[in-house]
Amino acid sequence: MKSARRSGVDKISNLPCNVLDGILGCLSLKDAVKTSILSKNWRYNWVTRTELDFDYHLFRSLAHEQEANTIIYQVLLLHKGPILNFILSGSNLISFPEIDHWILFLSKKNVQKFTLQIYSRNSYHLPSHLFTFKQLRHLELGMCLFHPPPGFKGFEKLINLDLKDVTFVPAVLKNLISRSPLLERLRLCWCTNFDTLEIDAVNLKCFAFRGASKSICFKNAPMLRKANVYLTSPASADASPVCSNLTKFFCYMPRLMELDIGGFLLKYLTMGGLPENALTTLNNVKSLRIGGMLFRTVEEVSCVIYLISSCPKLQELTIECETMNTMNDVAEPIVQFLRDQSSLCGVVKILQRVYMCMFSGLEMEIEFVRSILAYAPVLEEISIWNYSCLLIQTGKQLTDKMKQFHQASPNVEIIVDEVDVED
What we know:
The chain has 423 residues and is α/β, with parallel strands linked by helices. The chain has 13 helices and 18 strands. The strands form three sheets. It has a 14-stranded parallel beta sheet. Helix 7 (170-178) links the parallel strand 7 (160-164) and strand 8. The longest helix has 14 residues, at 65-78. The two termini are 48 Å apart. The mean pLDDT is 84.
């Protein structure tokens, strides 16, 4: 830099255009635009930037939405060339006609990644221009109304679809998935309630769902590696036995490696009863997380034991408890059931880490831990935590008690963390 100043040669400005674009691409949009004041040569270097990110940082720094609208209009007016990635997300983003204009402008820019997060009491009705984005590969929407125009044939190049608080006719999602043959990642969070959610996507690798549905059915997901399903509505009494049967539910995801389930899904899965034999489709699962475990019925606990015993390659297990102290009256049958269990013997032989969250120290929870300790020969760590005010016993008391249990692994470390409310 000293040598450049002495010689009077501006080496940075003389770099190839693609190198300059790469440098500007490493900066935030705000900082990239600021480079226009460096010199006449730099005044318009940023206008070919392929990523435009108008996120919450921009809106947070401005007092009024109109200021942000003016900035966005100026940037789009001066921009030249394709815009591959466009992000629009802000708390002041409530002027929908302007967004319509911006999306119309973007429809001619070969956008590959489009993110629109609306923070408003009213959902934004997506304009028809969005459905003409032929090069779209990543689509992330929040608080929108998704109603494609007649004749919409899907996004043929779409790889990632992320929808949060999006309203649509369920048939629209089904058609969108079927017409997106390259889809690998699908996330649905707090979207339209479904009578039946059907997943038929031959290239899908990651799936996440949080919301309400009377039934869930995986019809075809041979490449699925990671599934996260959190059902927020009670299981429907008239749910299809095909969907609420454990064997049928996991039948079409033979390559699953990470499974994360919670909410009312456990109850939903046990409606069809438990199969006699372990599920071979879970043979590749290495990580299992169960959220909202209530330890309230033998059926629910037996379902968890069954899932664990169906995962012979399981290395990491996480149980998020939601047991209330008033549930001691149901402890005896569950404790007895766990004591009679030997199905984990020889199954959890490579289990290495167990995490028990929101652990209260109730008898059925402790008995569950005892079962794991007794049958996991290479277990390295079992970590238990909850707020100290919710623990029935102190962390030290729980640790001392569990160290007295029979331990199949000679090297297991038992950790009980008490978290103060202030923390």
